[in-house]
Amino acid sequence: MVKVNENFAKLPANYLFVDIAKKVDAYQKENPGREILRLGIGDVTRPLVKPVVDAMKKAADEMGYAETFRGYGPEAGYGFLRETIAAHDYQNLDISPDEIFISDGAKSDTSSIGDIFGLDNIVAVCDPVYPVYVDSNVMASRAGDYKEGSGWSKIVYMPCMEENSFLPTFPKTVPDMIYLCFPNNPSGVSIPKEQLQAWVDYANLHGSVILYDAAYEAFIQTPGVPHSIYECQGAKTCAIEFRSFSKTAGFTGVRCAFTVVPKALQFGGTSLNQMWARHQSTKMNGVSYPVQRAAEAVYTEEGQKLVRENLAYYHKNAKIILQGLQHAGFTVYGGVDSPYVWMKVPEGLTSWQFFDELLKRCAVVGTPGSGFGTHGEGYFRLTSFNTTENTEKAVQRIVEQFT
Ligand SMILES: *Cc1c(COP(=O)(O)O)cnc(C)c1O
């Protein structure tokens, strides 16, 4: 009889967003006229910019004529897009187009990158964390067993707390695979150059690999904060970088991302660049031509200008949240280089208790920090993805209720 992958049975059900939806529905039923303001949205809301839509339409038209029709494209992406990314995003960092692999998303890539690593590697993640890194390693059998309260037996957790400015510190056990995400989801904090350099040095010293998720790179405003891990000396021998057009340019529904695997990244004489190329050509047939043309258009002068305007819109909302909450006496983090604001819940309340309180008193919805890991307890994530009007209203209600 067929044996299924038993690791799936170990995964605890993740009811975070289901539980939130249930509570919000119940509240709405009890308060039919009350406008609920959602600051828990984890998806972009600004539409695609015109040059992107135009490029997608033009490419779609090309597909309708024999002369310009395209079938299977290169598995790792079209040269035009890989070259544009290398020239634009890695201008002075000496990353070549064949070190860039186009894909349908950073979620796919961060979850399948484990395929090229041995199963007995020790994995380290931040706590709180984007759940994909953990769950994909559970499926691959690298996580051990789950225990309520302490998490997975074989995973090394790096607590990110107020005490360490939400930046991970070197764990007692030296990990082989280190997942880092900056600017961070959920905490919204970015990592200063020196700290990231320290991680690069650490990884090179111990022969570890850093899996660097830079999905929110475009939100960085603070001068000096690294946009790419390759700004750090020696990162090409220890790091893989993941980026996505999802949050940068509103591609969450369009699907396009890329992963950088430098040729200098080798372990035991094996090139990870070649392994990833083999992985992708075995497991995928590339991203659709119109979508890659759309991604290319993000880099045009007009595309950049308009994409920056959308990012500025989110930044403005984040600032409204930050300032409003500070005014109401809350302690808040993130929200500058990120669409996420990480607020400390009032003394004596859990993340979920605060969720209930905020819903009841303000009809405002956020995400309890405990949903992202043990060390997310006591925190609450608000996002800048709603409209400015709703963001202002939500903040006003919070200020009225809590001051
Ligand atoms: C949204 C997000 C991504 C992007 O995923 P896509 O599959 O490219 O849409 C990656 N990492 C983190 C931490 C995210 O929050």
Automatic annotation (TrEMBL):
Binding site for substrate: Y15, G42, K107, Y130, N185, N285, R381
Protein's UniProt keywords contain Transferase: yes
Pfam families, sorted: Aminotran_1_2
GO function terms (MF aspect): L,L-diaminopimelate aminotransferase activity; pyridoxal phosphate binding
CDD domains assigned to the protein according to its UniProt record, in alphabetical order: AAT_like (cd00609)
Origin superkingdom: Bacteria
EC number, as in UniProt: 2.6.1.83
Pathway the protein takes part in: Amino-acid biosynthesis; L-lysine biosynthesis via DAP pathway; LL-2,6-diaminopimelate from (S)-tetrahydrodipicolinate (aminotransferase route): step 1/1
Keywords carried by this UniProt record: Aminotransferase, Pyridoxal phosphate, Transferase
Record keyword Repeat present: no
Catalysed transformations (reactions): (2S,6S)-2,6-diaminopimelate + 2-oxoglutarate = (S)-2,3,4,5-tetrahydrodipicolinate + L-glutamate + H2O + H(+)
Cofactor(s) this protein requires: pyridoxal 5'-phosphate
Function: Involved in the synthesis of meso-diaminopimelate (m-DAP or DL-DAP), required for both lysine and peptidoglycan biosynthesis. Catalyzes the direct conversion of tetrahydrodipicolinate to LL-diaminopimelate.
Assembly behavior: Homodimer.
Family as reported in the entry's similarity comment: Belongs to the class-I pyridoxal-phosphate-dependent aminotransferase family. LL-diaminopimelate aminotransferase subfamily.
Name of the protein this chain belongs to: LL-diaminopimelate aminotransferase
Lineage of source species: Bacteria, Bacillati, Bacillota, Clostridia, Eubacteriales
Gene name per UniProt: dapL
